[in-house]
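User: structure tokens for this one?
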Amino acid sequence: MRTFLILLGAGVILSVLLSAWALVERNNMKIQLAVQNQVLENLQEDIVELKKRPSQAARPAAPARQQPTEVKVSIDDDPIKGDLDAPVTIVEFSDYQCPFCKRSNDNVISKIDEEYISKGKVRLVFRDYPLAFHKQAVPAAIAANCAGEQEKYWEVHDFLFANPDKLNTTAVSDAADELGLDKAKFDACVNDKSKEAEITADFKEGQEYGVTGTPSYFIGRTEDGKEITGTFVRGAQPFDVFKQHIDEQLEKTN
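Assistant:
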């Protein structure tokens, strides 16, 4: 009888544990699904917005402008990830609401970080290029820049790309403790109008370099001062494209 009761108790405990595990798994799946749905919604919004634009088919085709292979690009005073003296610099123009930027950040920049940035070979400069039809892009950029004033830029950068459903200053403010932010300082910063002006300046400068969409990258040898001469890489290219350009620049420094 005693053995039976022990087995029965063990069965009940196992059943409870299995039920709890199943509940956690269901919650994790719901979170993953919500994130995927948000990325899809952002992509659908991009498609709808692009369809609204006037068709260029009926207009005479303008001569194709040759994109220079190398462009002088300022790093301005924007956030830098990695060793400040790293021999190669990547200047990224990006938009937190852009699905392609998220994909590039998750699948490519993470590999560059692992293979080059963490080893002191590359430094990454992040510059804002919020597209006009991405309504949450500017608030997200403001949130990241304000976090930067508390030396938490990259923590909020990662938070925004990981949570495409939380691309606003309110969401970041709500997560202030988790992100290590002083909430009062952060809230005061996001109400400072100069922050949006700084983001607009990044956007205009990107246009001068030939940036027309996101993500866009310039890869070049680290030079003295606030500029690099970088090779223009357009769009969410595969890691191998970046690796080729980075390795070429590293060879030049040896």
